[in-house]
Amino acid sequence: xxxxxxxxxxxxxxxxxxxxxxxxxxxxxxxxxxxxxxxxxxxxxxxxxxxxxxxxxxxxxxxxxxxxxxxxxxxxxxxxxxxxxxxxxxxxxxxxxxxxxxxxxxxxxxxxxxxxxxxxxxxxxxxxxxxxxxxxxxxxxxxxxxxxxxxxxxxxxxxxxxxxxxxxxxxxxxxxxxxxxxxxxxxxxxxxxxxxxxxxxxxxxxxxxxxxxxxxxxxxxxxxxxxxxxxxxxxxxxxxxxxxxxxxxxxxxxxxxxxxxxxxxxxxxxxxxxxxxxxxxxxxxxxxxxxxxxxxxxxxxxxxxxxxxxxxxxxxxxxxxxxxxxxxxxxxxx
Length: 334
Hints:
By secondary structure, the protein is mainly β. It folds into 2 domains: 2-82, SH3 type barrels (Roll), CATH 2.30.30.100; 100-333, Lipocalin, CATH 2.40.128.100. Helix content is 8%, strand content 63%. The protein has helices spanning 2-20, 75-82; strands spanning 31-36, 41-49, 53-58, 63-67, 71-74, 100-115, 119-136, 138-154, 158-178, 184-200, 214-233, 236-254, 266-270, 273-286, 289-302, 307-309, 315-317, 321-333. β2 (41-49) and β3 form a beta hairpin. The longest helix has 19 residues, at 2-20. The chain is elongated, with a radius of gyration of 27 Å.
């Protein structure tokens, strides 16, 4: 018990010392030696230390994060008090994923929607996303994005500058698997997602005289995927994500009443389809924040819907379709 109290006293004393040596009190931060309960010993500059995490920049330039409660003792202070020999320092420290991460993510993308041999729309979307991620062996992430743009319609006629906007919400959970190198993780995950797309050409007329109308697309799906993280040193890292989307249900609402009297609004249910997405993230840690660039690819393929009839007995169907989105995200994490 005396040893535990002694170690806790050393840790509290060092916390006070690190606080006094922070930028508020000094310009230069001395290197510290920290021993963890798993036997890892790291020497470097302490960038951050609080009740949740200790973040250290090692002598080789790698930024390492550990849960605060995994600290065994601070070597320099322990040696001074106990006269024990200095422990061996491992040159390849274990990287720990940050426990709490908030993310703000502007993005630009090109999107193309096609109903084969019938029509297509394409254009650019401008968006903003935000996410919160938790890591502690178990991973949990909440993610949302909104994007807006204008697309051009083409079939036998054309109609340009149709306003589109999209909202997507996702919740995933998974597990982090550290790799033997100590510098990489593989995370598998599964979750639930909702995607809403509004395509509004109401009040517009195509080059052939056809009147436009508002369309609403709803997808309910489950993402299942793998994402990686690898530290490159000097605050740099990269990761790859590959995901398959299980399509549960789709609902398409066509506001045909926008065309004129005698037309009813129609809802078509879609039962079959799937999706795929992939991305490459390159990240740079700068003290307490990080920045990353992430090119991405998102794809959906949806089968033909069921048939619905309006009040006049006319049959309406949503044709099989596919959509492809290619873009780039620029984000800040803290």
